Amino acid sequence: MQIDPMERAMILGASRGLGAELAKVAVRSMYPVVGFGRKAANLAAIREELPLFEYVVTDFSKHQGQQEALRHVLETDCSKVFCVAGGGPYGLFHELAMKDHDWAWEVSFRMSALVTHALLTSKREVQLILVGSSIAESNPDQRAASYCAAKHALKGLFGTVRLENPDFDIRLFSPGYMDTEMLPKNAEVRQLGVYSPQQLATDLWTWSLTSDESGHKLYPPHPVVS
User: Fold this and answer.
1) Is the pTM of this model over 0.85?
2) How far apart are alpha carbons 38 and 60 in whole angstroms?
3) Beta bridge mates, 82
4) Mean pLDDT computed over 155-181
C-alpha cells in the first residue's frame, strides 16, 4: 500500500494517556504518525509495536523543547496536528510552587498557542485539533488552578481564532475525566465513572475524519450510563 506523504498526523503529547492511544489508533488505520513527548521509553515502545510511528523526544515545559517541536511541525509534511499535551499540579494554589504552575501553563496552553500561531502564519492547509477538558475549560476545578487556567485560556484561544475565520480546520476536543495515570486511583470522581482513553482516542480519530461546522466535541464530565 502506497501512502501519500501528506497523509501524516503529528501528535504533541504522544508518550502516554490519550495521546499515546490516539497514535495507536491512527497508525492501525494505516496513517503514519510523528509523536512528540518527554517519555522516551514509552515512545520507543509504540515504535517497536507499530513501525509507522516515528517520534521526537522533547520537553514542552522548556522553550527550547517547544521550539524544537514547532520546527518539526512546520518542516514536516502533514495533514493533521493534534495538541494533546497537558497536565498540572494538584493542591491549593498558594501551597504549590510557582514553578509548578508555570509548568502547567507552558505545557497545557503555550505549546498549543505557539502551534496555532505558527500554522496560521505559515498558511498551511492542515487540520489542527486542540485538546481541552470539559471539566476545566469552562468552570473552576478545585485544587487544579493552574491546569484549569490553562484550559480556560485554550478554549478562549480556540473560540477567538474560529471567529477570525482561519484558512484551516481548527477544532477543540473536550473530554471528561479519563482513566489515566494523571488521575489518582483514589480520586473521588472515579466513583461516578471515568472514560476509557482508548475509546476517547477512537472517538477523536473518527471525528477528525468527518466534517463538523461547530468544530467542538464536548463530553459530559462522566460517562452517561444508559
Assistant:
1) yes
2) 8
3) 11, 129
4) 93
